Amino acid sequence: MRIAMIGTGYVGLVSGACFSQFGFDVICVDKDAGKIAALERDEIPIFEPGLDKLVADNKAKGRLQFSTDLAASVKDADAIFIAVGTPTRRGDGHADLTYVYAAAAEIAAAVTGDAVIVTKSTVPVGTGRKVAEILRQTRPDVTFDVVSNPEFLREGSAIEDFMRPDRIVIGAETERAREMMQQIYRPLFLIETPIVFTGLETAEIIKYAGNTFLATKITFINEIANLCEKVGANVHDVARGIGLDGRIGRKFLHAGPGFGGSCFPKDCLALVHTARQYEAPQSIVETVLAVNAARKKEMAQRVIETCGGSVQGKTVAVLGLTFKPNTDDMRDAPALDIVPTLQEAGASIRAYDPEGMDEARKLLPNVEFCAGAYEAMRGADALVIVTEWNEFRALDLGQIKSLLRQPVIVDLRNVYSPVEMQAAGFRYRSIGRPNV
């Protein structure tokens, strides 16, 4: 089995490497010659635990290659995956499908025979039909089978998600396409992974419906956390109490500063705009977006309130900048709202993140980036935990207290116990829990 993966971004690179681990011959294609050259040198452009070893091992075994030559790469491929970016389009919020359609046209021009084209990129409903139309118009002499195969990879655990997924969704409408996809995912079928076969439109909606539902769970528990703070309840106990109900489930019920990343904000926005286009408005998802945007801004106000109502002339230490741990992704991270709001209120920021500082430097001006967590705290008037990296979970409280000018901690991820923090002499504020 020979697979061509068009695009070496997060989805394309992880998927290509994992398919090669299955034993297939995979070639990953990208127009960015610098990125391909770096991958040839085993330099991975993103931080994803285990990906560097996976790429290096399969390159060494000859199963994984990289190229800028799309035409040569797709010529002998049994299946061609489109895994290019679909960023939010400026001006109207729709997913920008320019790269998807351009890839489809290039693939059609290059293939030498009948082909199975698989859309791995996250795309709005109707995109598969448009891809099929482009393929047919470009090459009426070739039979194309178009498949929708959305990804469900979580940054920070993408390899495990690919190798042991909850389910595989395949939107395919010919027997040939279904058989091809069954061959590709045979290693997962053998471990009894549920495979859901649907039509194109259904598969496309499953991806958006899944992500927007998870975003809704996050937003729901954040609003419940606000109520818990007002009445003296504990949101952790509330989340556990409702999460043990099998109809609800325990995942994504962790109160915090709001969701970010490359998927949830973009996919919620794209679904909203697609639904409006089809006159089927998604008022719940629209509210989720509005509440989440407001929450990120409100987190900075919590810091200001905990610092006595003003941070003018004060220094705030910020631990964690990426939208979640185990990634270097800064896209729509809460820190991108929290840090500038604190700066506008007169604060100086000292920050540390284990993996995200290179990207953060491009996005957060006038921040002093530090080499470690304790260095960031030195001489600060308050400490704010924004991202729950494991290395922030067992900090030395005595050392923190000696480094800070004032014993003030705002824990936006509920890493520490309010009782423990009070006993240690801190003015401590967390999310949705009583400050004992």
Entry summary:
By secondary structure, the chain is of the alpha/beta class. The chain has helices at residues 10-21, 33-40, 51-60, 70-74, 98-110, 127-138, 158-163, 175-184, 186-189, 200-231, 235-243, 264-277, 283-306, 335-344, 357-363, 373-377, 397-403, 418-423, and strands at residues 2-6, 25-29, 64-67, 79-82, 115-119, 144-148, 168-171, 195-198, 315-319, 348-352, 367-369, 382-385, 408-411, 427-429.
How would you describe this structure to a colleague?
- The protein is α/β, with parallel strands linked by helices.
- The chain folds into 2 domains: 2-198, Rossmann fold (3-Layer(aba) Sandwich); 295-429, NAD(P)-binding Rossmann-like Domain (Rossmann fold).
- It contains 18 helices and 14 strands.
- The chain has a 6-stranded parallel beta sheet, sandwiched between helices. Strands 11-10-9-12-13-14 form a 6-stranded parallel beta sheet. Strands 7-8 form a two-stranded parallel ribbon.
- Helix 17 (397-403) links the parallel strand 12 (382-385) and strand 13 (408-411).
- Helix 5 runs parallel beside helix 6.
